[in-house]
Design a protein that fits this description.
The protein is mainly beta. Helices cover about 0% and strands about 65% of the residues. β9 and β10 form a beta hairpin. The longest helix is centred in the middle third of the chain and has 4 residues. The chain is globular, with a radius of gyration of 26 Å.
Length: about 425
């Protein structure tokens, strides 16, 4: 639900979000060789049979702006933002040998974690013809709850930023520093620049720089559940990233370079223990995206090449690609719009991640490889006035290209499946 209100001397924006998800968990299949034999998916043994995750997110956001002074092209205003966030995670299971430890209840696992946050931000905003600035102070009351304990703290932070724009150049800088609370000393700086290469703004080059010096999230320091307990001291993470993109012909061709330097990168190992890399991790990606409309045909290609300095611990696929091709046209005096296409997704072989259901996290491992398999889908989309229909055959090459169609360790992609649906709009 959202609402806006605007008058000459007052503006406000109000939004409420409420989301709930329930996820059945199976821990992955027991024997990966089972997918190579003629077993129906429902008959393949899995690690967990009664596990599930429930997620509930509730958010309230109210922003108010009061203009103070206006002279020529300059405007001074004050704004206040109120944000309430409530996040809940429930995990239920019957204890088994899947997890190494059972700490509290050997008959039933009922884990619960919650985060409540109440944030207020007061900002002074100054805008001119091509430039704007802001300076603000924020206060955040945060409470963390787990099965057997809880904690809360108050953090105070300052924010500042500036924007510039003209016909060809756009630039933005945002800064944040937290000076009290659990995250005391956290600092972030984010800058972006975009320059148009032509008068029509259909070709441009952009660059972004991000820097974070921060403590890992509280639950990585201290956590209690039926199968997990840790109380540790962690180093601050330092993250520097540089991104550059060249956009040509109204984004029909996009070339990108990304670089990440991450000190004390945090991850879960194969024993489900949270660790930090003792040395820095450098990650480099080179990407390209091409969109080609050709009469009734549309080609879309996206490729990515990446290298990681810590691949002996945390591996990534060297090559990732997506290719789609569709044919679309109007029929029966433009009463029917039809689109028929096929898409292929592929990533090269690498030591993929495993998944920890109780933590909703992935872990790194160096035992089993996944990848080097094309995932092919075919689809038909139809539109008749306000009605939209879709028909999709997912993983149509199931059983034709080998059996290494895993997206995570012990988690194969669903075998060939047919899906269809309809969407009907009751307004133009």
């Amino acid at each position: 639900f959202s609402s806006t209100y605007e008058r000459h001397r007052y503006k406000s924006f109000f939004i409420i979000k409420n989301q709930q998800f329930k996820i059945g968990e199976n821990g992955g299949i027991v024997d990966e060789n089972d997918i190579e034999v003629a077993l129906a998916p429902v008959n393949i043994p899995v690690q967990l049979s009664e596990a599930s995750n429930k997620l509930r997110n509730f958010n309230v956001n109210l922003t108010q702006v009061v203009p103070l002074i206006a002279w020529y092209n300059n405007k001074l205003s004050i704004s206040h933002s109120f944000v309430y966030d409530r996040k809940k995670h429930f995990y239920s299971d019957v204890p088994s040998a899947y997890y190494a430890s059972i700490l509290y209840d050997s008959l039933q696992t009922l884990d619960s974690t919650r985060i409540h946050a109440l944030k207020n931000i007061l900002k002074l905003n100054l805008s001119a013809l091509h430039t704007s600035w802001y300076l603000g102070y924020g206060n955040n009351l945060v409470a963390y709850f787990s099965n057997v304990d809880s904690t809360d703290f108050v953090e105070n932070f300052i924010i500042a930023g500036s924007r510039f724009h003209d016909k060809k150049l756009k630039a933005e800088l945002n800064l944040k520093h937290t000076f009290t609370g659990f995250y005391q000393g956290n600092f972030s700086a984010n800058g972006e620049v975009k320059y148009a290469l032509t008068q029509l703004n259909d070709n441009d080059i952009s660059m972004a720089v991000h820097f974070y010096n921060r403590r890992p999230d509280y639950f990585y320091w201290h956590f209690t559940a039926n199968n997990f307990y840790w109380d540790t001291i962690l180093n601050k993470e330092q993250i520097f990233s540089l991104h550059s993109f060249l956009n040509l012909w109204s984004n029909r061709l996009v070339l990108g370079i990304n670089y990440y330097r991450w000190l004390h990168y945090g991850y879960f190992d194969s024993l489900f223990v949270y660790r930090q890399l003792p040395t820095e991790m450098n990650h480099f990606t080179l990407s390209g995206e091409l969109k080609v409309p050709l009469k009734h045909f549309y080609f879309h290609t996206h490729v990515l090449y990446q290298r990681n300095s810590q691949s002996a611990i945390i591996d990534f696929p060297d090559f990732v690609a997506m290719q789609s091709l569709n044919c679309q046209s109007w029929f029966f005096k433009k009463a029917l719009f039809a689109q028929v296409g096929v898409s292929v997704n592929y990533f090269s072989s690498f030591y993929g991640r495993g998944y920890i259901p109780a933590l909703l996290h992935f872990y790194a491992q160096q035992t089993d490889k996944i990848g080097n398999y094309p995932f092919i889908d075919a689809y038909i989309n139809l539109k008749i006035k306000r009605a939209r229909f879709f028909f999709k055959l997912e993983h149509l090459n199931s059983g034709m290209s080998g059996a290494n169609y895993f997206t995570a360790i012990h988690y194969p992609l669903q075998q060939r499946a047919f899906r269809f649906g309809i969407s009907w709009s009751f307004y133009d």
